[in-house]
Description:
By secondary structure, this protein is α+β, with helices and mostly antiparallel strands. Helices cover 38% and strands 23% of the residues. It has 21 helices and 21 strands. The longest helix has 19 residues, at 104-122. 47% of the residues are buried. Residues 159-170, 276-343, 483-487 and 504-541 have low confidence and may be disordered.
Amino acid sequence: MIIAGKYEVIGELGRGGMGLVYQARHTTLGATYAVKTVPAHIAAEPEYLLRFQQEAQVMAALRHPNIVRVVDIGEDQGTHYLVMECVEGESLRQLLAASPTLPLGDVVRIGLDVAAALGHAHSHVPPIVHRDIKPSNILVDGNSGRALVTDFGIAKLLGSDVLRTKTGMVIGTVKYCSPEQLDGSAIDPRVDVFALGLVLCEMVAGRHPLEGLDEKQLLARALDRGTEYPLQLPGTTPADLRRLIERATAKDRARRHPTMGALHEALADVQRSLSTRTLSVTSLRDTRRSAARMALPAAGVAVLIGTVFFAGFRMERAGYFGSPAATDRLQVDDDTAPAIPSAPRAIGVMEFASVTPDPSLGWMRDVIRDNLSSRLSGASNCKVFSKEFLDFKAQGLLKSGAYSDLRAATMRVAEELGVTKAIFGRYRTEGSRLVIEAHVVDMQTGLQEPVDAVQGEMDGFTDLQGQLARKLMVRLDVKPPVESVGSTAGIDDYKLLLDAEGAQPIPADVGPKDRVSGWATHAWRLAGLLRYLDAAPAAAEDMDIRDAILATIEKYRRAYQEKDLGLLAEVYGSLSPEQSRAASQYFANAQNLVVTIDDVDVAIDGDRAAVSYTRHDRFNDVKTGDRQALQVRLTKMLVRGETGWTIAPSAK
């Protein structure tokens, strides 16, 4: 059987009340995927179909090494399907079944990985709350030991109608639900903090605090705000880890870690206090061997993924207790589900200078840099920072008086963010051909690695960028992203989007020679300073200000999603005639436009802020009808005025 003319079914991996999961091979790429299907009679229910489609969109938008990745979604002869990567490993639930407790180093490492994944989801615009974190929804890679989060089938987009459930419906596994999930209160990312705290407790104590209780007892105990859960942590548990778990599992959410980032930082502090600082893959393998369990093949994990996926749709052991606000779908942990790596490598993508005499090609400077940033940020172990973002944070250090030299301040920021490599580049024309060159500079040693260059005809500009990105991934030793299935938007769409975004041309008074001169020497000098800088704690950012900034970015996303020029003008303060014209043309070209934003970084300096993010546009080309994908990494400067935060008109 072949699904959608491109996924050749190898075998069945699992089935549930909502459909089947297959292991399939892409007929062109040769890659193996897990393909989840929902048959026509189930898809005929609008609520289920909407949830299926929105789960796919949510997971496709969450590109993170600790989140199982979606690569395609579609419909074939009435059967809707979702295509995901296959992962080799076991679920945390299976590991705990083999050995109820794990070494503390493994506990903390897994916790860090899960917190990183959830923090990424929470930073999405709008924030995505998982709502069903439990051991069976955490996969642990059998080779690297990294943990991955899966099953966003009941995730909630805060402030959005997406994935809204019926009034009074409790969504999640009762055993890991926070009290506010069960009593019908408004939820926020702290429900995931609570659930992860319980998972950490279970890994340390060897049992869930409420192990053995039935559903009614679980619900009653969870809603009793007068008593905390009996964690029963071993006496040997380090005091800092004990305090962390007690805080994360507090029934009063005001007492919990305020954000997943705060929990991640607390776990990192615990990790530093332990003698074992890395995940012991050997100990995990020993755990499996001691229980005479063999590591699952990739297909086995795909089965787990499929099982969990369908659990998000079916009414599993539903119970109805108490008031309507606290009743509906209550799922008991079924122990049947699916795994995250160390922190991504941080890379700075700096200037790509034009050394071509043709001024009409100045727009390529932004496109090359942003496209490269986007492709690298899609890699599974790579975190990308733009020059604008680094410069903004460095200027803040200068204003504070902490540094008097911009280069030293920039290197301090690079050190703080963990940026170890920087990419500089340039491009030129040779007749009808385009040449793009990139240089990687080691920020600690200042050593410049050999030039990576690509060249070809101008009409192959998009392919050239892809070739350059692949070369740099090899040089930087980052893992290429799972290839998305479908077409990539053409350069005309990129140009229109850049114009709509108000990208500024290269200043006329700066010649090509001036832009290129000494860039490698400059990088060397910056790198030399890094070795002598003292560490300094980062200033805490006001969460209310950050939320207001993210609300502006969400308004910006909606303006594109809804093709609303008025709303876009509100976000920018005003639109230039060129922006309005380009945005209108982009809206006309992009039918069924879906815009998502993720991987958001925010830096705040008084009434100014820098926001870097990855934007994903998916649409049908008006001319061909083909589904297109456009991904770009952007940095915007925001200013705060009397009416709130707006995007600075001169910023891209």
